[in-house]
Amino acid sequence: MTHTAANAEESAIAEPAQAAVTPAIINSTGAGEDHPPTIAIIIDDMGNYQNMGERAIRIPAPLTLSFLPFRPHTNSQARLAYAAGKEIMLHIPMENVKRIPLGASGLTSDMSSQNMVATFRQAIKAIPYVSGVNNHMGSALTQNRAAMNLVMGELQGYPLYFVDSRTTASSVAHAVAANHAIPTLNRDVFLDHVITTKAIDFQFKRLLDIARKKGTAIAIGHPHRETIEYLEKVLPSLGEQGVAIATIKGLWAIRNNAQDMFQTTPPTILAERRKGNDDEPKKSVN
After folding, report:
1. Where is the composition biased (Basic and acidic residues) (predicted)?
2. Is residue 264 domain-resident?
3. Cα–Cα distance measured from residue 44 to residue 105, given in angstroms and rounded to the nearest whole number
4. How deeply is 81 buried, as exposed, middle or buried, from its count of CB atoms within 10 A (0-12, 13-18, 19+)?
5. How confident is the model at residue 104, as a pLDDT?
6. Global pTM?
7. What residues make up the domain containing 214?
8. Would residue 154 count as lying in a domain?
Protein backbone atom coordinates (compact mmCIF):
# COMPACT_ATOMS: atom_id res chain seq x y z
CA MET A 1 0.00 0.00 0.00
CA THR A 2 1.34 3.40 -0.91
CA HIS A 3 2.12 6.26 1.42
CA THR A 4 -0.82 8.66 1.02
CA ALA A 5 -0.80 12.44 1.27
CA ALA A 6 -3.09 12.30 4.29
CA ASN A 7 -0.76 9.88 6.05
CA ALA A 8 2.16 12.20 5.36
CA GLU A 9 0.21 15.07 6.93
CA GLU A 10 -0.76 13.00 9.96
CA SER A 11 2.83 11.86 10.42
CA ALA A 12 4.47 15.20 9.77
CA ILE A 13 6.53 15.18 12.97
CA ALA A 14 6.74 11.45 13.49
CA GLU A 15 8.61 9.47 12.63
CA PRO A 16 -5.82 -23.91 12.22
CA ALA A 17 -3.05 -23.12 14.45
CA GLN A 18 -2.27 -22.99 18.11
CA ALA A 19 -4.52 -20.89 20.31
CA ALA A 20 -3.40 -17.28 20.60
CA VAL A 21 -2.23 -15.89 23.92
CA THR A 22 -4.64 -13.28 25.27
CA PRO A 23 -2.96 -9.88 25.67
CA ALA A 24 -2.89 -8.25 29.08
CA ILE A 25 -5.82 -5.83 29.22
CA ILE A 26 -6.56 -2.89 31.48
CA ASN A 27 -10.00 -1.28 31.38
CA SER A 28 -11.19 2.11 32.53
CA THR A 29 -12.53 0.85 35.85
CA GLY A 30 -9.86 -1.67 36.79
CA ALA A 31 -6.76 0.48 36.61
CA GLY A 32 -5.09 0.56 39.99
CA GLU A 33 -1.85 1.98 41.33
CA ASP A 34 0.18 -1.05 40.26
CA HIS A 35 0.16 -1.78 36.57
CA PRO A 36 2.58 -2.97 33.91
CA PRO A 37 3.78 -0.68 31.13
CA THR A 38 0.63 0.01 29.15
CA ILE A 39 -0.01 1.08 25.58
CA ALA A 40 -3.09 2.34 23.77
CA ILE A 41 -3.44 2.11 20.00
CA ILE A 42 -5.76 4.33 17.99
CA ILE A 43 -6.62 3.25 14.46
CA ASP A 44 -7.50 6.38 12.48
CA ASP A 45 -9.38 6.76 9.18
CA MET A 46 -12.00 4.17 10.06
CA GLY A 47 -15.13 4.25 7.92
CA ASN A 48 -13.35 4.45 4.58
CA TYR A 49 -12.33 0.82 4.08
CA GLN A 50 -14.63 -2.17 4.45
CA ASN A 51 -12.23 -5.12 4.54
CA MET A 52 -9.38 -3.61 6.53
CA GLY A 53 -11.82 -1.84 8.82
CA GLU A 54 -13.57 -5.10 9.65
CA ARG A 55 -10.23 -6.80 10.26
CA ALA A 56 -9.28 -4.03 12.69
CA ILE A 57 -12.54 -4.59 14.53
CA ARG A 58 -11.80 -8.33 14.83
CA ILE A 59 -8.33 -7.92 16.37
CA PRO A 60 -8.60 -9.48 19.85
CA ALA A 61 -7.36 -6.47 21.80
CA PRO A 62 -8.99 -3.30 23.19
CA LEU A 63 -8.10 -1.00 20.34
CA THR A 64 -9.56 2.48 20.06
CA LEU A 65 -11.02 3.07 16.60
CA SER A 66 -11.38 6.61 15.27
CA PHE A 67 -14.00 7.14 12.57
CA LEU A 68 -14.18 9.82 9.92
CA PRO A 69 -17.71 11.27 9.80
CA PHE A 70 -20.08 10.56 6.94
CA ARG A 71 -17.92 7.95 5.22
CA PRO A 72 -19.36 4.83 3.52
CA HIS A 73 -18.79 2.40 6.40
CA THR A 74 -18.69 4.72 9.41
CA ASN A 75 -22.10 4.03 10.91
CA SER A 76 -22.16 0.26 10.40
CA GLN A 77 -18.54 -0.30 11.46
CA ALA A 78 -18.80 1.90 14.54
CA ARG A 79 -21.72 -0.21 15.71
CA LEU A 80 -19.85 -3.44 14.96
CA ALA A 81 -16.78 -2.13 16.75
CA TYR A 82 -18.72 -1.15 19.84
CA ALA A 83 -20.36 -4.58 19.96
CA ALA A 84 -16.87 -6.09 19.73
CA GLY A 85 -15.69 -4.14 22.77
CA LYS A 86 -13.73 -1.46 20.97
CA GLU A 87 -13.70 2.18 22.05
CA ILE A 88 -15.05 4.62 19.46
CA MET A 89 -13.73 8.06 18.54
CA LEU A 90 -14.55 10.81 16.06
CA HIS A 91 -11.65 11.55 13.70
CA ILE A 92 -12.50 15.15 12.89
CA PRO A 93 -10.88 16.56 9.71
CA MET A 94 -9.01 19.82 10.30
CA GLU A 95 -7.22 22.26 8.03
CA ASN A 96 -3.64 21.33 7.17
CA VAL A 97 -0.72 23.41 5.94
CA LYS A 98 -0.49 21.43 2.69
CA ARG A 99 -4.11 22.21 1.81
CA ILE A 100 -4.96 18.54 1.34
CA PRO A 101 -8.76 18.30 0.79
CA LEU A 102 -10.67 17.39 3.95
CA GLY A 103 -13.94 15.99 2.65
CA ALA A 104 -17.13 16.06 4.70
CA SER A 105 -17.13 17.91 8.03
CA GLY A 106 -13.73 19.53 7.58
CA LEU A 107 -12.96 22.43 9.92
CA THR A 108 -11.06 25.35 8.40
CA SER A 109 -9.95 28.76 9.63
CA ASP A 110 -12.02 30.63 7.03
CA MET A 111 -15.29 29.28 8.47
CA SER A 112 -17.51 31.51 10.54
CA SER A 113 -17.56 30.61 14.21
CA GLN A 114 -21.20 29.58 13.84
CA ASN A 115 -20.45 27.29 10.91
CA MET A 116 -17.42 25.72 12.60
CA VAL A 117 -19.38 24.88 15.75
CA ALA A 118 -22.36 23.55 13.77
CA THR A 119 -20.12 21.41 11.54
CA PHE A 120 -18.29 19.97 14.54
CA ARG A 121 -21.55 19.27 16.34
CA GLN A 122 -22.96 17.39 13.34
CA ALA A 123 -19.79 15.31 13.12
CA ILE A 124 -20.01 14.33 16.79
CA LYS A 125 -23.62 13.26 16.37
CA ALA A 126 -22.72 11.20 13.29
CA ILE A 127 -20.57 8.69 15.23
CA PRO A 128 -22.46 6.00 17.18
CA TYR A 129 -21.16 5.29 20.70
CA VAL A 130 -18.51 8.02 20.45
CA SER A 131 -16.24 8.38 23.50
CA GLY A 132 -13.66 10.87 22.29
CA VAL A 133 -12.24 12.99 19.48
CA ASN A 134 -8.91 13.34 17.72
CA ASN A 135 -7.82 15.45 14.78
CA HIS A 136 -7.48 14.17 11.21
CA MET A 137 -4.57 16.13 9.75
CA GLY A 138 -4.91 19.60 11.30
CA SER A 139 -1.34 20.90 11.10
CA ALA A 140 -2.75 24.37 10.37
CA LEU A 141 -5.90 24.52 12.49
CA THR A 142 -4.37 23.05 15.66
CA GLN A 143 -1.95 26.01 15.68
CA ASN A 144 -4.88 28.44 15.61
CA ARG A 145 -5.78 29.24 19.21
CA ALA A 146 -9.03 31.01 18.32
CA ALA A 147 -10.22 28.01 16.32
CA MET A 148 -9.20 25.60 19.06
CA ASN A 149 -11.11 27.66 21.61
CA LEU A 150 -14.23 27.33 19.46
CA VAL A 151 -13.75 23.58 19.03
CA MET A 152 -13.01 22.92 22.69
CA GLY A 153 -15.75 25.28 23.81
CA GLU A 154 -18.19 23.02 22.01
CA LEU A 155 -16.51 19.77 23.05
CA GLN A 156 -16.57 20.62 26.76
CA GLY A 157 -20.34 20.20 26.76
CA TYR A 158 -20.08 16.50 25.94
CA PRO A 159 -18.80 13.52 27.93
CA LEU A 160 -15.93 13.16 25.45
CA TYR A 161 -12.14 13.28 25.73
CA PHE A 162 -9.65 14.72 23.23
CA VAL A 163 -6.43 13.23 21.87
CA ASP A 164 -4.08 15.59 20.06
CA SER A 165 -2.72 13.66 17.09
CA ARG A 166 0.26 16.05 17.12
CA THR A 167 0.58 16.56 13.38
CA THR A 168 2.64 19.66 14.18
CA ALA A 169 4.98 20.45 17.04
CA SER A 170 3.28 23.85 17.23
CA SER A 171 -0.15 22.45 18.13
CA VAL A 172 -2.01 24.23 20.91
CA ALA A 173 -4.94 21.77 20.83
CA HIS A 174 -3.87 19.83 23.93
CA ALA A 175 -3.30 22.98 25.97
CA VAL A 176 -6.60 24.57 24.94
CA ALA A 177 -8.51 21.35 25.67
CA ALA A 178 -6.94 21.22 29.13
CA ASN A 179 -7.92 24.86 29.71
CA HIS A 180 -11.51 23.84 29.00
CA ALA A 181 -11.28 21.01 31.57
CA ILE A 182 -11.55 18.38 28.86
CA PRO A 183 -9.73 15.08 29.57
CA THR A 184 -6.90 15.27 27.06
CA LEU A 185 -3.87 13.26 25.94
CA ASN A 186 -1.15 13.43 23.28
CA ARG A 187 -0.07 10.92 20.65
CA ASP A 188 3.44 9.55 21.26
CA VAL A 189 4.14 7.47 18.12
CA PHE A 190 2.84 7.11 14.58
CA LEU A 191 3.06 3.42 13.69
CA ASP A 192 2.86 3.65 9.92
CA HIS A 193 4.36 6.92 8.73
CA VAL A 194 6.26 4.57 6.42
CA ILE A 195 4.00 1.72 5.36
CA THR A 196 6.32 -1.28 5.51
CA THR A 197 6.42 -4.09 8.03
CA LYS A 198 9.99 -3.20 8.97
CA ALA A 199 9.13 0.44 9.65
CA ILE A 200 5.97 -0.46 11.58
CA ASP A 201 7.95 -2.91 13.70
CA PHE A 202 10.51 -0.20 14.48
CA GLN A 203 7.78 2.24 15.55
CA PHE A 204 5.97 -0.40 17.61
CA LYS A 205 9.18 -1.15 19.50
CA ARG A 206 9.59 2.60 20.09
CA LEU A 207 6.07 2.59 21.54
CA LEU A 208 6.96 -0.21 23.96
CA ASP A 209 10.17 1.55 24.96
CA ILE A 210 8.26 4.74 25.79
CA ALA A 211 5.70 2.78 27.81
CA ARG A 212 8.46 1.04 29.76
CA LYS A 213 10.16 4.34 30.52
CA LYS A 214 7.08 6.47 31.24
CA GLY A 215 4.49 3.86 32.25
CA THR A 216 2.12 4.51 29.36
CA ALA A 217 2.25 5.46 25.67
CA ILE A 218 -0.18 6.14 22.84
CA ALA A 219 0.25 5.16 19.18
CA ILE A 220 -1.76 6.05 16.12
CA GLY A 221 -1.98 3.76 13.10
CA HIS A 222 -4.20 3.39 10.07
CA PRO A 223 -6.18 0.55 8.47
CA HIS A 224 -3.44 -0.30 5.99
CA ARG A 225 -2.99 -4.00 5.27
CA GLU A 226 0.58 -3.90 6.57
CA THR A 227 -0.47 -2.27 9.84
CA ILE A 228 -3.43 -4.57 10.48
CA GLU A 229 -1.45 -7.72 9.67
CA TYR A 230 1.34 -6.60 12.00
CA LEU A 231 -1.05 -5.92 14.88
CA GLU A 232 -2.85 -9.22 14.29
CA LYS A 233 0.51 -10.93 14.71
CA VAL A 234 2.04 -9.09 17.69
CA LEU A 235 -0.83 -8.08 19.96
CA PRO A 236 -1.96 -11.56 21.05
CA SER A 237 1.43 -12.19 22.69
CA LEU A 238 1.92 -8.69 24.10
CA GLY A 239 1.42 -9.88 27.66
CA GLU A 240 4.42 -12.20 27.31
CA GLN A 241 6.56 -9.06 26.98
CA GLY A 242 5.22 -7.67 30.26
CA VAL A 243 3.18 -4.99 28.51
CA ALA A 244 -0.57 -4.38 28.75
CA ILE A 245 -2.91 -2.72 26.28
CA ALA A 246 -5.82 -0.46 27.13
CA THR A 247 -8.33 1.77 25.45
CA ILE A 248 -7.75 5.51 25.72
CA LYS A 249 -10.14 5.62 28.69
CA GLY A 250 -8.24 2.80 30.35
CA LEU A 251 -4.90 4.50 29.81
CA TRP A 252 -6.27 7.81 31.11
CA ALA A 253 -7.46 6.00 34.24
CA ILE A 254 -3.94 4.67 34.82
CA ARG A 255 -2.50 8.16 34.56
CA ASN A 256 -5.15 9.58 36.89
CA ASN A 257 -5.35 6.97 39.66
CA ALA A 258 -8.51 5.34 38.27
CA GLN A 259 -10.51 8.55 38.59
CA ASP A 260 -13.49 8.76 36.27
CA MET A 261 -12.83 11.17 33.40
CA PHE A 262 -15.88 13.29 34.16
CA GLN A 263 -16.10 12.92 37.93
CA THR A 264 -15.15 16.52 38.70
CA THR A 265 -16.59 18.24 35.61
CA PRO A 266 -19.96 16.68 34.81
CA PRO A 267 -20.79 17.14 31.11
CA THR A 268 -23.83 18.94 29.85
CA ILE A 269 -26.54 16.51 28.81
CA LEU A 270 -26.87 16.47 25.04
CA ALA A 271 -30.57 17.39 25.18
CA GLU A 272 -29.61 20.53 27.11
CA ARG A 273 -27.04 21.79 24.64
CA ARG A 274 -26.61 25.52 24.46
CA LYS A 275 -29.51 27.00 22.50
CA GLY A 276 -27.98 30.35 21.58
CA ASN A 277 -25.56 29.18 18.90
CA ASP A 278 -27.91 30.02 16.03
CA ASP A 279 -27.76 33.64 17.14
CA GLU A 280 -23.96 33.86 17.29
CA PRO A 281 -22.40 36.50 15.03
CA LYS A 282 -20.87 35.14 11.84
CA LYS A 283 -17.16 35.83 12.02
CA SER A 284 -13.99 34.19 10.80
CA VAL A 285 -11.56 32.51 13.16
CA ASN A 286 -8.52 33.80 11.26
Report:
1. 271-286
2. no
3. 16
4. buried
5. 80
6. 0.85
7. 5-13+23-259
8. yes
